[in-house]
Amino acid sequence: MASEPVNVLEYQKLAKEALPKMYYDFYAGGAEDEYSLKENVEAFRRITFRPRVLVDVSRVDVSTTILGYNISSPIMIAPTGAHKLANPEGEIATARAAAACNTIMVLSCMSTCTVEEVATSCNAVRFFQLYVLKRRDVAALLVQRAERNGYKALVLTVDVPRLGRREADIKNKMVSVQLKNLDGLLSTKVANDKGSNCEALVNEIFDASLNWEDLAWLRSITNLPILIKGILTGDDAIKAVEVGVSGIVVSNHGARQLDYSPATISVLEEVVHAVRGKIPVLFDGGIRRGTDVFKALALGAQAVLVGRPVIFGLAAKGEYGVKRVIDMLKDELELTMALSGCPSLKDITRSHVRTEREQLHSML
């Protein structure tokens, strides 16, 4: 009998064994040379700790509040598409694990279970991730369905005017899955003999004209708070505050869009400084350890979103696997806080980490 995984990377190995190559590559792969894919993880390794000692850490509290919702730790589930490729129960299993862990799940609009199925499966706090489609009426309908089914916020993903070049999917001739939320609304069948069906589909249905002015349209059709996901610069963060969004997710789309975009952890601080505490900044990209979560919080994120590790847990062991991945990261975060002298999340400060730039300065 194989031993139980003790960390997230071991779940990735199990997922690779469990999944057909086409599906594993779809989840694990990035754009083009996969430079940013490697950097998202590697950049964390270049940040070290400045732990404080002789602090009472007999009790460590990792709970927090996001947009007014209490969650057990600052670790949320990122929007990722097509969970049924990983496990037959799909997003329902993921949502149940989120509920069990008392955290927030962001359901992808490209999910393989409907908004309604996920809503009735459990009582997790759920946000809905939205791509704006060329058919604005269909996009509006998705927003209304999310609102009607108790989703608490919209996460507008803004870094996909076209799909990034994911060469593994092209080689594997990746087939686009049935997008349950679009059933009966849009045809998602595309004829494409050359390469990835996903790419052809996105380029056919997503609205590449989406711009800052369209946020007024989105706000006019919903009362839900809107977070923008896909910001990597202070300039865009300032614009996001100006148009009145409720939060930002610093993200390079899991390095699946523009290769050689920076590792998200390397630009987090720039965005945090630009926002000046006016709205929450969440973080997405490359989290594989509780130490990574701590580093993101020290650099100003209010919470992190975890994508691939959740999928790997789901592929390896279904709902239980997702729960284990979240719990592992949470336990590692708690230990990191104890060993760094931080009894609560508000005790984690910028002075607890040393970035690569500061290490270079200290050598000069």
Automatic annotation (TrEMBL):
Binding residues for glyoxylate: 131, 166, 253, 256
A GO CC annotation given for this chain: peroxisome
Keywords: Flavoprotein, FMN, Oxidoreductase, Peroxisome
Cofactor names: FMN
Enzyme class: oxidoreductase
Domain FMN hydroxy acid dehydrogenase stretches: 1-358
Keyword Transmembrane helix appears in the UniProt entry: no
Database matches in PROSITE patterns: FMN_HYDROXY_ACID_DH_1, FMN_HYDROXY_ACID_DH_2
Gene Ontology MF term list: (S)-2-hydroxy-acid oxidase activity; FMN binding
Reaction(s) catalysed by this chain's protein: 2-hydroxyoctanoate + O2 = 2-oxooctanoate + H2O2; a (2S)-2-hydroxycarboxylate + O2 = a 2-oxocarboxylate + H2O2; 2-hydroxyhexanoate + O2 = 2-oxohexanoate + H2O2
One of the GO biological process terms: hydrogen peroxide biosynthetic process
Binding site residues for FMN: 79-81, 108, 129, 157, 229, 251, 284-288, 307-308
UniProt-annotated catalytic positions: 253
Annotated compartments: Peroxisome
E.C. designation(s): 1.1.3.15
Family, similarity comment: Belongs to the FMN-dependent alpha-hydroxy acid dehydrogenase family.
Record-given protein name: (S)-2-hydroxy-acid oxidase
